[in-house]
Amino acid sequence: MYVIGSACIEEKAGECVDVCPVDCIEEGDDQFYIDTDICISCGACEAACPVASIFYFEDLPEDQKHYFDKAVEYYKNK
Ligand code: SF4
Question: What is the mean pLDDT of residues 14-18?
Fold first, then answer.
């Protein structure tokens, strides 16, 4: 699955939402979040993001790994 990382904070461009074929990206308080249970790993959002904030999970930079947990928490608590 894909994860939205730190560059989205306060940027929130939102192009990812329009290209996701399974409608699994939502706007949170400070960033957009991908629902990792629904994401089909198509990569469309990664290509559309103007600030290169979206990574395939395994490619997330070490210092951004916690954004996966942040996304899981977001969908658990909504
Ligand atoms: Fe949606 Fe595809 Fe991005 Fe997953 S990888 S969030 S399915 S656009």
Answer: 97
